[in-house]
Design brief:
The chain is of the alpha/beta class. It folds into two domains: 161 residues, 3-Layer(aba) Sandwich (Rossmann fold); 95 residues, SIR2/SIRT2 'Small Domain', CATH 3.30.1600.10. Helices cover 37% and strands 15% of the residues. The strands form three sheets. A six-stranded parallel β-sheet has the order 4-3-2-9-11-12, with helices on both faces. Helix 3 crosses helix 11. The longest helix has 17 residues. The N and C termini lie far apart (49 Å). It binds carba-nicotinamide-adenine-dinucleotide (CNA). The site of carba-nicotinamide-adenine-dinucleotide has 29 residues, from loops.
């Protein structure tokens, strides 16, 4: 490995650990998961979550990650075989995290722009049933906030209003110069990236910086809105965690910051984080779409969900 690459890697490791830190958890909770994962227990879990949502919850905090969008066709990071980390050959990266590493981007922005070209909201992917379910929680007056780690913009496309959405790792909705910080027209940047006309250079006089969409890279600060809305976390009456490995901090720690009496529900393929450590934790394993379908049914919201889905298709001209 070249010396400068090695230094870059060490520096970025250090920064990641101090700020936007991916931490592997031990698997002490996975045993609880498998011991509570029978079909019967699962459906009982769904029934009790549905009845709590109907009768008691009016301030639901939802935390989502890349697993939320795999049903839309976007690979997550860590799923073995299908995740981005196992399929990075085409980006020719020295290590997987380099794709979102600001220091690496300064040196070679092509891998990120290749990914961005595919991921730009409104180009290749559309919200799935789980995104529409979050919109339905909002329509039913149950949603406090959606905290997402995703950068695909699918929550916005599903119609979660801006004031209820924290895009913790940024979004493509705005773009800035990585050198002077100047804001650039997001539409112009999108056009350039989608057409492969990259890197996009800053237009400010004498600045030779590269412009990037305001996605938060390893080594960059989270948007202030992440911290602002943090104040609301103690007032949550139900935490719903969907499709995330809860390995990236500080995002992941929100799951442990809700009150100890607040019920926490995990909808994910595998057990993650500290789920299982509290008496009022519920873990709903398996595919997220299937769980959301069953939860919707238990809530008696099937028609409403189909209507939202249909409405989205009509409005976006995507009806199949
Ligand atoms: P991750 O670490 O890849 O974890 C995803 C989790 O979702 C895993 O625990 C999977 O088991 C689970 N999962 C995947 N598919 C399903 C499914 N169909 N049903 C149920 N569970 C499923 O991703 P995280 O979001 O936890 O990691 C944080 C990173 C990933 C964020 O910073 C994102 O920017 C980044 N990311 C985002 C996207 C996106 O915007 N769609 C895609 C890939 C990575």
């Amino acid at each position: 490995m070249q010396p400068c690459l090695l230094t870059l890697r060490l520096v970025s490791r250090f920064i990641r650990c101090s700020r936007w830190c991916a931490v592997r958890r031990d698997d002490q909770y996975s045993r609880r998961w498998s011991s509570s994962g029978s079909d019967k227990q699962l459906s009982q879990g769904i029934e009790s979550v549905a009845s709590y949502i109907k009768q008691q919850a009016s301030n639901i905090l939802v935390m989502v990650g890349a697993g939320m969008s795999t049903p839309s066709g976007i690979p997550d990071f860590r799923s073995p075989g299908t995740g981005l980390y196992d399929n990075l050959q085409k980006y020719d990266l020295p290590y997987p995290e380099a794709i979102f590493d600001i220091h690496y981007f300064m040196m070679d922005p092509r891998p990120f722009f290749t990914l961005a070209q595919d991921l730009y909201p409104g180009v290749n992917y559309k919200p799935n049933i789980a995104h529409h379910f979050l919109r339905l929680l909002h329509e039913e007056g149950k949603l406090q906030m959606v905290y997402t780690q995703n950068i695909d913009g699918l929550e916005r496309l599903a119609g979660i209003p801006e004031e209820k959405l924290v895009e913790a790792h940024g979004s493509f909705a705005t773009a800035s110069c990585t050198l002077c910080g100047r804001r650039h027209d997001a539409g112009r940047v999108k056009k350039a990236v989608v057409e492969g006309d990259v890197p996009v250079m800053c237009e400010a006089a004498k600045c030779k910086g590269k412009v990037k969409p305001d996605i938060v890279f390893f080594g960059e600060n989270l948007p202030s809105v992440f911290w602002d809305y943090h104040l609301q976390v103690p007032f949550t009456d139900l935490l719903l965690v969907m499709g995330t490995s809860l390995e990236v901090y500080p995002f992941a720690k929100i799951a442990d910051e809700v009150g100890r009496k607040t019920p926490r529900v995990l909808i994910n393929l595998s057990a993650v984080g500290s789920f299982g450590s509290r008496d009022n934790d519920t873990v709903l394993g398996g595919d997220l779409v299937q769980t959301v379908e069953e939860l919707t049914k238990a809530l008696g919201w099937e028609e409403k969900l189909r209507a939202l889905e249909k409405n989205y298709s009509l409005q976006s001209g995507n009806e199949e």
